[in-house]
Amino acid sequence: MSIFKxxxxxxxxxxxxxxxxxxxxYLCISFFGILRKKNERAVEPKKVFxxxxxxxxxxxxxxxxxxxxxxLDYPKELYDYFCYC
Length: 85
Fold this sequence. Notes:
Strand order of the largest sheet: 1-2
GO molecular function, one term: transferase activity
Structural class: alpha+beta
Shape: elongated
Helix content: 40-55%
Number of helices: 2
Protein name: Glycosyltransferase
Low-confidence stretches: none
Keywords: Membrane, Transferase, Transmembrane, Transmembrane helix
Number of strands: 2
Largest sheet: 2 strands, parallel
Number of domains: 2
Radius of gyration: 28 Å
Order of helices and strands: HEHE
C-alpha cells in the first residue's frame, strides 16, 4: 500500500507543479498585457450597412428604439434603418 501512496503522491506533486507553472505563465502574460501601452488611433467609419428592426406588436417601445438608432455615433449617410412590421 505504501508504494501506491508514493506513486499517487508523486503524480499529484508533478501535476501540482505543472499547474503552478501554467498559472505563473498566465499571470505574467496578463501583467505585461496590462502594462503595454495601447495606441489609440482615430478610425474613420467606412462600412455601409442597414439596420432592420422587427417590430411586430412592439408599438409601445418602437419609438424608443428609433430614437436610439437616431442617436448612433456613426455617420448618418453610411447606414439606413428599416422597421419591419
